[in-house]
């Protein structure tokens, strides 16, 4: 059983990479498409840090647990997050965006770090079935978002 498990899903979104990056790199924007909020309408989200870009964060508490999500990296084609669920583990979430005509191909992935915890490593075996549907909902929420007439606000990015 591996320490790291990655769950990845891909979909098409009728928006440009700049529009998607601007939306998902802010707490307010991510909340609009948050798959966990779709699954748990009573999910509590408390913004922290800056409004957008690296350091934009929120605390969450709901039926599936509590923790924090923080934007750790933003480029023109991706946004990465650190998720801390305390004793339930740490994970990284990444949204990669590639232009495809007037649309974009979005690849959303979550990488779980089970550390040396044998129970979390067992969870990793089921991660695709447990977390995959949430990632799929996130992509569907992005695709269904009302992109018409949205102003693109640029976000500071870092190069690697």
Automatic annotation (TrEMBL):
Source organism superkingdom: Bacteria
Gene3D superfamilies referenced in this protein's UniProt entry, alphabetically: 3.30.530.20
InterPro entries in the cross-refs: Polyketide_cyclase/dehydratase (IPR019587), START-like_dom_sf (IPR023393)
Protein known as: SRPBCC family protein
Organism name: Microbacterium aquimaris
């Amino acid at each position: 059983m591996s320490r790291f498990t990655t769950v990845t899903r891909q979909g098409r979104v009728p928006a440009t990479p700049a529009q998607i990056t601007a939306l998902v790199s802010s707490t307010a924007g991510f909340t609009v498409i948050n798959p966990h909020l779709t699954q748990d309408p009573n999910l509590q989200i408390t913004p922290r840090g800056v409004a957008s870009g690296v350091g934009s964060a929120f605390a969450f508490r709901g039926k599936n647990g509590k923790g924090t999500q923080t934007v750790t990296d933003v480029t023109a084609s991706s946004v990465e997050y650190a998720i801390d669920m305390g004793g339930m583990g740490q994970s990284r979430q990444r949204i990669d965006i590639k232009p495809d005509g007037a649309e974009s191909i979005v690849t959303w992935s979550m990488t779980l770090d089970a550390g040396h915890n044998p129970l979390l490593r067992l969870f990793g075996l089921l991660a695709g079935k447990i977390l995959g549907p949430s990632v799929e909902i996130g992509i569907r929420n992005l695709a269904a978002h009302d992109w018409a007439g949205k102003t693109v606000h640029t976000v500071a990015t870092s190069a690697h």
